[in-house]
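INFO batch 0412 | record 1 of 1 | parsing
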Amino acid sequence: MGKGIFIIAIMLMSVSVMGQQQERNISIIPEPVSLLKKGGHFVLPDEVVISTPLAQGAYINSLLVEKLSTAPGKKVKLSSSADNAHIELLLNKITDKEIGREGYRLDVTPQKVVIKANEPAGLLYGVQTFFQLLPPQIESDKKKENVSWQIPVVEITDYPRVEWRGLMLDVSRHFFTVDEVKQFIDNMVRYKYNIFHWHLTDDEGWRIEIKSLPKLTQVGAWRTEQVGWFGSLSDPDPDAPKNYGGFYTQDEIGEVIAYAMERNVQVMPEVDVPGHSSAVLAAYPELACFPESGDHFVRTGAPFLDWNTGGRPAAMYENTLCPANENVYEFMDKVITEVAALFPFEYIHTGGDEAPYTFWEKSPDIKKLMLREGIKDMSGVQSYFGKRVEQIILSKGKKMMGWDEILEGGITPTTALMSWRGIEHGIKASNSGHYVVMSPTNYVYIDYMQGDLSTEPRVYGSLRLNQTYQFDPIPEGANAKYILGGQANLWTEQIYNIRQVEYMVWPRGFAVAESLWSPKEKKDWNRFASKTEDHFARFDYARIKYSPAIYDPIVKVAKEGEKLMVTLTTEIEGLDIYASFDASTPDNFYPVYKEPLQVPKDAYVMRIITYRDGKPVGRLMSISAEELMKRAR
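INFO prediction complete | emitting C-alpha cells
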C-alpha cells in the first residue's frame, strides 16, 4: 500500500470511529434532574490535567487517576490550579441551595469539563456521571485501543430526590469476605447509593465480633455446609463438622466503614432480635425461654419454621430471645455498647420481623411478665422487648430502626420503621410522626426471581425489572416529611457466592437507584430499558455479572375448557419470540409468535427464545408440559 493511500485509510478509520462515538446514546443512570445537550465533543488529551481541591477529595482524585490512566492509557496530572486544566473540580465557596449536599453541576465544553458541588459527595457523584458519559470501555481494567475517548458537550444539574438511598446485603445466610463487601459497596457508588444496610445476624450465623461475648462468633458464626434449595435442606448429621461461615473482626468492621465513608456511603448495622436468633441461642442457650431443650443450634437451611399459618410463622424449634429473662437485656446492652462504638451511623437496626410467638405462649415466665406489666397479648410482649432495647440504644447516643412488625404492639415516637410488607405500614407510620424507609417486597426485594422459573434459582416470589422500576419511595397518602427514602434488600438464602449477588442486584439496582434519585416525572420505562442495555455493555467491560432476564419472555398459562393455552409477552420492545413443542431448539426460521399457543396433547416440553434484528438475545427456555399444567390459571 502506498504511503498516501495508507494515510487516507487511517483518516477514514478515525472518521468512522468518531462518527460511532457521536451516535452513542447518553445513558446516565440514575437520570439527572436536568440535562441539556449541545453541539460538539470534549476529547481527552494524551496528558489529562485535573484541577482539584486536593485536601478534600483523596478518593475522588485516585478514582479519576485510576480510571483515566487504565483503559484510556492517559497520563494524568493533579493540580491545585485551574490554569490549563482539562477537568476542573470545584467546591462552591457560596452554597448552591438548589443542589444541596449531594448534588452537582457538570458542564462540558469542547475545551474542558467542570464539576461543581457544595461538598465532596457531590463531586463524587459528578465524577460518576462523567464516567457514564465516556465510552463503556472506561470500565475495563486493561488499556483499550481504537477508542475515541470523547464525551458530548452538555450541561447537567443534578441532585437526589430522597436522602436515604439504600441497599441491604444479608451476610448471615451466606458469608461474604471483606473484599467482597467492598466490591458490593463500589458497585453501589456507581449508581449514587449512599446507605449500606449490613444484615449481620440471623438464624444461620452471627457475623460480628463482640469481644465481651466471644461465643457469639466461636459458636454462632459456624454451621454445617449444605448446598441445595434453602428452606428444604435435610437436617444435617449432628456429628458433621461445623466449618462453614465466618465473621468480621472489629478491625475489619472498622475497615469496611472507613472504606464506605470515603465513598459517601454510611453503614447501618442490623442485629436481628428477638426472632431470627438461633445463632445467639446456639452460643448462649440461657437466653431462651426453654434453655434446657437441647434444640438450640445454628440453622443450616433445613425447615424449622412453619410458614403455613396465614400470619406469623410457628416455630418448630425455639429461635427467639426470651423477653421475660433479665439476662437478655444484659446481653443486649453488651452487644449494643460494642456495636454503637464501632458504627458512626445514627441508626442501629434491630430487626423485629417474623418473631414466632410459639414458645413465648408456652412460657410460664412470659405469663408472669404479662401479668406484672399489664400486657394483653404477644405483640405487646414484643413491644415491651423493643422498648427496653430502644432505651439501651438511646443510652449509647443512637436511634433504633426496625422492620414494620414492631408497629403491632406499639412503638415509641423515636423509633424509625422500615416498611417491607407493602407500603401501608410505612404510610401509617409516617402519618403518626415516625421516620420511615420504604422497602416493600413487591418492588424492591431483589432476592426474588427476576425471570422465568426455567432460568432462575427457585425462590418463593418473582419480581421483574419493570415492576421494580415502578417503585415510588414517597407513595400517595404518606407524609413526605417523615419519609427518609427507600431501599432494596438482598436476602441470601439462595445466593451462595458474590457472582450470584451481582446477578440478583443488577439491573434491578439500576431501577431502584433511578426511583430514589431522579425526579418522579423524569422516569420513563422505555428510555430506562434502553439505558439498561447500554449499561450491560459497561458491566461486560467491568466484568460485573448481571441478569439478562429482560430479554426473556413472560410466560402465562390458562385453561380454556380442555385446552391449555400459553401466552408470551416481553418486558421490552423490539423482540421477536419463537417457540416449539417438538423438543427442537427454535430459531428465527420458526414461525414468529403472534397469538396464544395451544399445548399439543402429547407434547412434553416447550422451548422458547427471543431474537432481535435476526440475532438471539434471550436465553433458551425449556418448560415441561407438566410444569405448564401446574402454572395454568
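INFO post-check: Residues 3-23 form the longest helix (21 residues).
INFO record closed
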